[in-house]
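Title: Request for sanity check on Translocase of outer mitochondrial membrane prediction

Description:
We are preparing a figure and want to confirm that the structure record we downloaded matches what your pipeline produces today. Could someone re-run it with the sequence below and paste the raw structure tokens into this thread? We only need the token string, no images.
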Amino acid sequence: MATIVDNNNTDVGSVTSDVVAPTPTTKKYIKPGKFDDMARASQDVLSNNEAFDGMRLEYQGAIGNVQTSNTFHLGSSEEAPPYALTTVFSRGNATVVAKYDSDVKLFARSIYSSNIFTNTFTFQINKEKNIYLGGDAEFSIRSTNLYFKYDTNRTFTANIFQALQKKWAVGLEYANIPSQQAEFYSAGVRWKKGKGETYSFNISNITGFGLNYSRRQNNLELATEFAVSPHPHTGALMSKTVFGARYAFHASLFKIRADTDGSIIGMYEEILGGFARLCFCAHLNYFTNDYKIGLGIQISK
């Protein structure tokens, strides 16, 4: 699977595997989900997107169909803006997300979703007045998922993901990225061995190949990924292995992630009184001896 990293995009949800209830004239169809989400079960555990350092304060509130979030980020070594306001409006099948931060960046996305069709439009502008526009369409027809995307960078992506049986799904993807002068051809297969246990394999002409495994049992989730990819300059093959675990108990959540590049990330969350959440994050690289520590507080009204 060619995972195209788009810094102009923001993940606001995913399509999970589901079963369409049969009608008097149809059979029961297995929905495979999206091609990009083939390894989501493991990526939810292995992703380091939740890691942060410094102090993060967040206040969330809701009035009717509108939800708001005010986030303050202090002392971060990353590029997180000191302040961000996020607003989400939902009604029926439609959702609108808007975000504005202290770096003078405006992000907006509209989503319309039904049982067989999902359409998304994205707009973004920064203080340099660089504008990004993109749109995508997803069709879920019986046991087949089709996806198309195009944006102002002339990036075009199309993929298909097909459920063969209850346990198997296969997919193909094509992506043309003029900004990188590259064309991606990718293929992938997913096997759900049993309840809570999933294997997936993907291969691409440019990004190499990867094998993912995930297992969920009660409150414990385990995941690992092994990937081989060519060096961007020399072409020599490089490998990377990632391990991760996530455990939920009572009102707490613990997550740890480690990889062969030397990175170890640990996160602990605790819900306090049903209206507040305390989060502690530590990031260590045992090759460079660098470390980062973050403390976050989230209050919901």
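Thanks, this matches our download. The two ends are 40 Å apart (CA to CA).
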